[in-house]
Model the fold of this input.
Amino acid sequence: MFPMRRGEDPARVSAQRQLTRSRGADTMPAMATYETRTRRWTRIEYEKLIDLGIFQPGEPIELIGGELMVAEPQGAAHYTAIWKTAKVLEAAFGPRWVVRTQGPIGLDEESEPEPDVAVVPGSADDYRSAHPSRPALTVEVSESSLGSDRERKGSVYARAGLRDYWILNLEEGVLEVYREPAADPSALFGWRYARRQVFNASARVSPLAAPDASIRVGDLLP
Done:
């Protein structure tokens, strides 16, 4: 700041003050900007974390689209629905199929979900060295995770080409059946299911891979 002395030209003093402000502004450091980003993981990295013991056995972590997701807590109704669904599907598919509960599925390079129930061909010995990648039927039992199971998992399952995806909706007591994977840029992972059907407890449904089986929805519900 330049104080005005007696006899000084007011216009000159005003110009000096303006120049000082301008120089100060020019030398003020610019504020740095940084866009927040998330760290995405591959299946190889994820499995290394498991091998290193970063995650404890049974810890409810899944790799979905490169992100580590915490699975829905398993209450009594949830567990009962998983158990009942597995038993019904074992009877429906027969001995040439394996019904897995909460086992890893190697979908792609950035996804290794652990669906509540998955039906895969062959025997358990066929998967001693690698997880199955393309279940004939994938089932999620949903309460608080309903939105994620529909949008996030639904999109990643459709992207992988899984033809038959079921959500056992415990909140409403219905079975949601998703089929016909289709590309959709607006979906979370670029894919969605073009066909969605909802069946109440008294309805019957047949898996695509076991068309002769007729499953009563109420037999899956807790």
Remarks:
- The radius of gyration is 29 Å.
- DSSP finds four helices and ten strands in the chain.
